[in-house]
Amino acid sequence: MKKVAILIDGEWFRRSLSDAMDGSLPNGVTADVLYRNALLALAKDEDLFRIFYYDCPPYDGKDSNPIDKTPVDFRAQAKFQARSRFLAELSTKDFIALRLGIARNRGWTLCDSYIRRAIKTTTPHPVQAADVFLALEQKGVDMRIGIDVATLTLKRIVDRIILISGDTDMIPAMKLARREGVQVVLVEVKSSKSSTLSRAMDEDADLVRLIRPVP
User: Residue 193: in which H helix or E strand, if any?
Assistant: First the structure.
């Protein structure tokens, strides 16, 4: 049996599952859905050490919409409650370890819908409050994945790392693991859309394992 760890880039996996099962998830990608699909990445000859889940907690700051100056309390929003509940439920699953970065405020920016309207016509469109949103950036997530890959590899904790991510920033960590004799398995999520993995990542993996998402 191969001892394995599953490392999940949370934002990437949630988005991939949502795209692949579009229309069949009335409550979105819940903790149960994500956990169930993560376990699909395991093969019969693999013994699970732990699932490491990397994400950011929801942004809990306060700000004001720059257009109409309306105060916005992000902690009071429904999506804050939903993300907090998701993380709390996921943390109770067997063999799960959460690795959380931070959500950094990057300032207000125009919505894609407004930009598309502006491109299609030369007529000026006054910016409304609904045309802007607060851009957020995940910080510390990639670093945590890299550190865990190095730790699992150099301490010989596992024989194989299953990486659920499409982020090419993971390639240096993948190279390290393979140089030290740990196998790297990438997971591709079956979708009617284009491939969820880049060729660059494929080239630095030992195996690519396809999963067919289930609701």
Answer: none
